[in-house]
Design a protein that fits this description.
By secondary structure, the chain is an alpha+beta fold. It has ten helices and six strands, in the order H-E-H-H-E-H-H-H-H-E-E-E-E-H-H-H. Strand 3 and strand 4 form a beta hairpin. Helix 5 packs across helix 6 and helix 6 packs antiparallel against helix 7.
Length: about 230
Amino acid sequence: MTVTTVVTTAPLPTGDRRMTAPLFTLHECARYLDTPVSTLHAWARPKDGAPLITVLPSAGRQATVPFVGFAEAFVLGALRHAGVPMQRIRPAVRKLNDEIGLDHALASRRVYTDGAELIFDYASSSDDEELLTVVRTGQEHLADVIRGYLKRITYGDDGWAARLRLPAYTQAEVTVDPTEAFGLPVIVHGGARVEDLVDRFKAGDGFAEIAADFDVPSAEVEDVIRVALRLPA
């Protein structure tokens, strides 16, 4: 398939806070992105090959994943949910990076506009029979899932991810924006930080009381607590 969309994106500036300010641990990323922590570890600190997501040097139990790494993990999750086999994600991402020609290309708008087509082109021209089978049998589905997932990303004027709407929640609309609340997840309805609601619940407050105090719908409070504590829906 021929890619016809042209989107120009300049490299991220050196020292951009989206790359340098740690926001999350890998365990927090796993919870917010609804992705197994073992998978994130394999992407961030592989035994062989280059990392697929940007992480800063380990600092004990402190956060190591900046916003760019979080966005990269989000896009990898889109490929995973679209049915691209885990062992085929790495070569597909390598092709995306080569074609897009940018470091941290998974966090760029080009992945949304051209990503599915580039994967189709890669599969069609490679000897990767498993990936080719996935593409041939579900090309339309693959594109729909990837684009549907990536609609959760808001891109800035510079062409790079600027805000993410998290996929782990079924009721609450929760976003991560590195310019708001120090990059911590925020509930759109009410503007409260997720961690503040969770802290109140752990302190013994009920859903209704928390909802009233933070002006967040009770169903969304329950959803936030469920994800934070891994409770059944």
